[in-house]
Amino acid sequence: MWHSFFNYGFGSDVSKQLTGSVVLPDDVDANGISLETTIKLKKFNIGNSARIPIPDITPGAYSENQELNFNIGSSYVKEIIYTTDGSEPSEVNGKIYESGTPIALNGTAGEKKTITVKVMAVASNGYNNSAVQAYKYTIDLPAERETVKVTNGIGSGEYNNGDQIGIIAQPESGKVFKNWIAEAVTYTTTEREVTEKILDENGNLKEVTTTKTETTRNARAIDGCFAGASKPVTAFAVPNVNSGEIIEVTAQCADSVTAVNLKAAIPSCGELMPTAITTGAVGVTVNNFAVTPSDTKAKADTQYTMTATLTAKDGYVFGENPVFTVNGTTAAGTPIIDKDANNNVVITGYTVTYTFRTEIPTQNIELDMANGKAYITADKEYTNPVVLFAAYNGDEFVCVSFKYKDLDAGINEINIPDDFSVENANTVKVMVWNNLEDIVLLFEAYEKIKS
User: How many CA within 13 A on the CB side of residue 167?
Assistant: First the structure.
């Protein structure tokens, strides 16, 4: 009877405090204890403890995320306190469990994660708090698979997050690879009713309502996944995207510029140097044109080099080993090398170089008496020679005049002296002498002005 009395209690842990006096027996049995013992109690207190909270999920391993709830189960439990960081819960440490708000036990895809939930019940009405109990859960989520769709290239498939895959650009005919972009994409399908008027078999108008389906593409950019965004063959790190999104990787391509024909005025000796070079190639811009040596007029028997910088316009890109010509003659093209945002080497344009050499001109003199001009073509430069004008009538002199004039190689425009007259003359002779002392005829020309 007394044995059951001392085990009486409402909680899982019962403590008992006994006070009073004990009458010691006069006789004992063979074990040293009297068969009859009397205990008089002046006061008997039973201190009940709150029950340890019981989870609704059995501890163990799970392949899906879980939601954990605790059963309070007693009116003398004030609140439940728990921790998931390994620390011991107490009235001053941990989180208060809210009934109906489960504790999320979430794992990481492709990883095994162990979560230890330590819990205790805080008692009310003078009862004792429960002991701390630990419950261990292992969440082993399978690796998430992502759908990768490659446009204008190879590499589509289903992959795990973080997989490194190889992708290869395959531009369509007439196009060349430019760069890669990646997007996380969802497609939203909506239906709407459309009413149209059509002619029936009798030629009468009637209204017909049909349902049209429209698909909207929603995309957001994904950065930092390419080993080389400007390389046609590169590695791609499969990212983790939101549920319902697919990963669309696109090899952006541009119209290929494979041949550029430039046009320029190639000067003869004495002619003005060109100041520009043009191209009819679509998608190409010409800049930084220059000719060296930087003569205003071309000199005789001199080599000149023309250079220009060619860049591709938006939507265009140079193909592999493009061909450059100037007036149909092959010119050299040197690639201009730079680095993109990812430090990859890229070709941003070409420097085209074309070399030509002027000829040794044939000496010639042409007269424009009506405008008082003479055009003397010299084979080279002459410093301060004598240019002599003589008018004849048959074999007789009619008038003669001269002037000193530096001659450039090529065509020289000279004003005929004002005192030179061709009245009564039928022929004009122009001679170029070295000087008037030891006269050496350099070249000459005749022109009939009357028959």
Answer: 35
| Domains of the chain: total | 5
Amino acid at 317: V
| In a shared domain, residues 247 and 154 | yes
Identify the CA nearest to 378 among candidates 244, 290, 269, 259: 269
CATH assignment at residue 75: 2.60.40
CATH code at position 437: 2.60.40.10
Supply the range of the domain harboring residue 351: 256-357
C-alpha 106/C-alpha 138 separation (Å) is: 10
Residue at which a domain ends, from 109, 124, 140: 140
Q: What are the start-end ranges of the H helices in 58-153?
A: none
Query: What spatial distance separates the first Cα and last Cα of the chain, rounded to whole Å?
Result: 166
Q: Please check whether residues 246 and 150 belong to one and the same domain.
A: yes
pLDDT, one tens digit for every residue, the chain (451 residues): 333 333 333 344 444 455 555 555 555 555 555 555 555 543 333 457 888 999 999 999 999 999 999 987 667 889 999 999 999 999 999 999 998 899 999 998 778 999 999 999 999 888 899 999 999 999 998 877 899 999 999 999 999 888 999 999 999 887 888 889 999 999 999 998 888 888 888 888 888 888 999 999 999 999 999 998 888 999 999 998 998 999 999 999 888 888 999 999 999 877 889 999 999 888 899 999 999 999 988 887 889 999 999 998 888 888 888 999 999 999 999 999 988 776 777 788 999 999 999 887 777 888 888 898 888 888 888 899 999 999 999 888 899 999 999 998 888 899 999 999 888 888 888 889 988 888 888 888 767 676 5
Peptide bond preceding 53: is omega within 30 degrees of 0, i.e. cis? no
β-strand pairing of 427-433 with 153-154:
unpaired
**One domain, residues 247 and 289:** no
266 and 232 housed in the same domain: no
pTM tops 0.85, yes or no: no
Last residue of a domain, one of 308, 327, 357: 357
Q: Are residues 58 and 73 in the same domain?
A: yes
